[in-house]
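Researcher: Good morning. I'm working through a list of sequences from a screen, and I'd like to move beyond sequence-only analysis. For each chain I'm collecting a predicted structure so we can compare shapes side by side. This is the next one on the list. No need for commentary yet; just the structure.
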Amino acid sequence: MDESMKKRILAAQRNEITEYHVYTKLAELAKNEQNAQVLRDIGEAERRHAEFWKTKTGTEVQPDWGKVWRTVTLARILGLTFVLKRMEKNEGTASRKYAEIEAAFPEVKKISEDEAAHEKSLLAMLDEELLQYVGSIVLGLNDALVELTGALAGFTLALGDTRIISLAGLVTGISAAFSMAASDYLSSKADGDPRAARSALYTGGTYLITVILMILPYLLIPYKFISLAITLAIVVLIIYLFNYYISVAKDLNFRKRFWEMTFISLGVAAFSFTLGWVLKIMLGVDA
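Model: Good morning. Structure tokens for this chain:
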């Protein structure tokens, strides 16, 4: 075995033992016992793969504890679905790496087949509450971004003081959050959805959190145009992070959704800013 091949095998060995610990710890987070058992079984298979590579290298390899910690932490924050989907994509990368050394070790074919089986097992188990209410989250997020971005742009030009803009934005945003939650609840209730209350909570909660993040620059910075610029940057960041999460968790087109939401939100902001400027001139307001 040449040095280059040994390095590849050691990397594969470390990856397998690392994923053994990842899957084992993710199993502890799974609320569904069947899902937890699937994760434990996959982890055990990864451990066997690591043992196989150990017989070839004769070396004991330590797992990448940093990767284990990052993955488990991410799962606690964003849920198992998001993390497992990301790992599923990496499983495909691992399968390609195994293909590179399959000629030297025909046994690798079995490991590649195991990796493919892992992907199917993971896809079959994905079902989390957060994704069940993703429609409510999208409703709250989209409305908050579009409505409040436009309102803040208009307030920024029409009003003079950032504290007044903050007050107007908070009153508008908080009122709209409760209105959205109530509308979602009544609509879901009328459709006979037993999850109406929780759906409304996700819609209103998402709206309220988005409002707070967008108003924050006006509360901290006394210069209104700088505050508006930072708010717009926050809007783009929120859109980016949300669409990245959804695109991974639900296998959707990230680029299309990101640019669509960004264009709508910033387009409404530009329109509202222009409208505020026109109305200010027409009404002779000096602020």
